[in-house]
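Appendix B. Extra example for self-study. Work through it before the problem class; the solution is given directly after the inputs so you can check yourself.
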Amino acid sequence: MKELVEYIVKSLVDKPEAVEIRETQGEMATIIEVRTAPEDAGKVIGREGRIANSIRAIVKAASAKQQKRVTVEILTEDREAK
Amino acid sequence: MKSIIMKGKSVDEAVEAALAVLGVDKNKVNVNVITEGKPAVMGIIGGEEAEVEVVEQGSAAEEANQSLQNILDKMGLLAIAEVAGEVEGEVKLAVKGEDMGRIIGKDGAMLKSLEIVVGAIIRRSTGVMTRVHIDAGGYMDKREKALQRLAAEVAEEVERTGVEKAMPYMEPADRRIIHLFLQDNPKIKSYSAGEGKERRLVIAPK
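Solution. Structure tokens for the complete assembly:
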């Protein structure tokens, strides 16, 4: 799932080299944290979160066969999840 | 889309060399710098070569198709994306294969998510606003025909009674299909009224 998020996020930003993706496997859920260059965060989130929500929907569909829930969090500069 | 990785004494030199190999203009490629390199002392000692990846830009449709295919592959779905049509500012892609239900999603929601993401990707890479339509297993095509049938029925009723009629709530993309379908009807007009989730398409006599 990390690869999927990484591909999408790196394709959306101007600075793919600054993208960091961290996957944390819990027992019940997997959390994928996305960090970008500060000026790129908006490109991943989109207007009213449209792009971020679409990425979440794609990840959800891709992980439908797994038992675990996968959440995608996009972290901005101040580390506040959006 | 062709791409090549090239080394050179500087980023500029590496890019020049890559362009010569690809045989394309600089404004037709995207350049990713892998390493900036360092100049050698007095031109001989030490130094590190610069390395760049130069990717030839395809048309918006080709780029959109490649992005969609990459996403479907990484989702683990058995599906093939192909370009179904391209006009100015608009790209149509069609997906074939297994797992159609998951690609379509509930009421086409997955197709919409894919359209948003692929649209954003090619807007960044081409710098041009392009509307991306994605269909899977003919779903959107059937949906469009169903909406047009519904609109034709209501238009007929409005024409007969002379009283305008509001349609149930529809997504903007669905309203667009009906507006386009009715725009050439000489006796009927359509408009949208209301805001947000209250917005309704109204079919009225001209």
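Self-check: Helices of chain A lie at 2-12, 41-45, 50-62. If your reasoning did not lead you there, revisit section 3.
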